[in-house]
Amino acid sequence: MDLAQSFARTFEGRAGGLIRTMLAPDRIETCTADLLRRTADVGRDLDYRYACIAASRPSSTNRCCACAG
């Protein structure tokens, strides 16, 4: 997360605002709950966009339901 945060800070708004950054953990069924929470926290704290695609396949739907209850 620290590396992603550093990258976003370095490149956000470069090239006259043409370069935008975002936090986007991929394959959330393989992400820890801590990583997802930290991503959301950093996104809110620094006003960065973040995206999380969930339940795009039956296997990820099942994993999300198992983790979230």
Q: What does this protein look like?
A:
Strands 1-2 form a two-stranded parallel ribbon. The model has no long low-confidence stretch (mean pLDDT 81). It has 69 residues and is mostly helical. The radius of gyration is 14 Å and the shape is elongated. The protein is built from four helices and two strands, in the order H-H-E-H-E-H. It has one domain.
Number of helices: 4
Low-confidence stretches: none
Shape: elongated
Mean pLDDT: 81
Q: What is the string of SSEs from the N terminus onward?
A: HHEHEH
The end-to-end span amounts to: 26 Å
Q: Find the structural class using helix and strand composition.
A: mainly alpha
Strand order of the largest sheet: 1-2
Tell me the total number of β-strands.
2
Give the percentage of residues in beta strands: 5-15%
**What kind of sheet is the major sheet?**
2 strands, parallel
Nearest-angstrom radius of gyration?
Answer: 14 Å
Helix content: 55-70%
* Domains (count): 1
Give the topology, please:
Blueprint: H1 2-11, H2 14-17, E1 22-23, H3 33-46, E2 49-50, H4 58-68
Parallel strand pairs: 1-2
What are the salient characteristics of this protein?
69 residues, mainly alpha, elongated
